Amino acid sequence: MEQTFIMIKPDGVQRGLVGEIIGRFEKKGFTLKGLKLISVERPFAEKHYEDLSSKPFFSGLVEYIISGPVVAMVWEGKNVVTTGRKIIGATNPADSAPGTIRGDFAVEIGRNVIHGSDSVESARKEIALWFPDGPVNWQSSLHSWVYE
Ligand code: UDP
Ligand code: MG
């Protein structure tokens, strides 16, 4: 079953959106396979966003991610990478549809509340980076009520 890495950014934690965001993924029918509240150091944030290191917003992005604790999660389910990105909404909250997390809870691109892996390959890399011991191995008893 597919897995994705989802992170509630420091603004999402500070603004008390943790429960709301976890609830959206739970209610969809996805399964929580990893969860921790963690403050990361600058080199770790730079590693997570290494593909963006040449972008003009990179240093501001790293400052943002290390500005407070984040909630790092692994979610599992059918097409969870693509569907997770849809639940999150477009990168710029000005373009995120109402009903998405960024559409409902964010205004600016540099304070867009949440991260989600953009492909199965980046999910694999991000889960390995953030959860070096691997996700938690368990099966939800709701499985047959979500999948036919
Ligand atoms: N970002 C920014 N300015 C930009 C583009 C991106 O501050 O012009 C930040 C924003 O927080 C975004 C993150 O950098 O979520 C990573 O950018 P990416 O293009 O990977 O967007 P995402 O995958 O998060 O939608
Ligand atoms: Mg991205």
TrEMBL record:
InterPro entries (UniProt xref): NDK-like_dom (IPR034907), NDK-like_dom_sf (IPR036850), Nucleoside_diP_kinase (IPR001564), Nucleoside_diP_kinase_AS (IPR023005)
Lineage top rank: taxon: Eukaryota
Alphabetized Pfam families for the sequence: NDK
Keyword annotations: ATP-binding, Kinase, Nucleotide-binding, Transferase
Reactions listed under catalytic activity: a ribonucleoside 5'-diphosphate + ATP = a ribonucleoside 5'-triphosphate + ADP; a 2'-deoxyribonucleoside 5'-diphosphate + ATP = a 2'-deoxyribonucleoside 5'-triphosphate + ADP
Cofactor: Mg(2+)
Documented EC number(s): 2.7.4.6
SUPFAM superfamilies recorded: Nucleoside diphosphate kinase, NDK (SSF54919)
GO biological process, one term: UTP biosynthetic process
Active site (UniProt): H115 (pros-phosphohistidine intermediate)
The UniProt record lists the keyword Nucleotide-binding: yes
A GO molecular-function descriptor: ATP binding
Keyword Transferase: yes
Domain named Nucleoside diphosphate kinase-like: residues: 1-138
Residues binding ATP, per UniProt: K9, F57, R85, T91, R102, N112
Enzyme class: transferase
Family (UniProt): Belongs to the NDK family.
Protein name per UniProt: Nucleoside diphosphate kinase
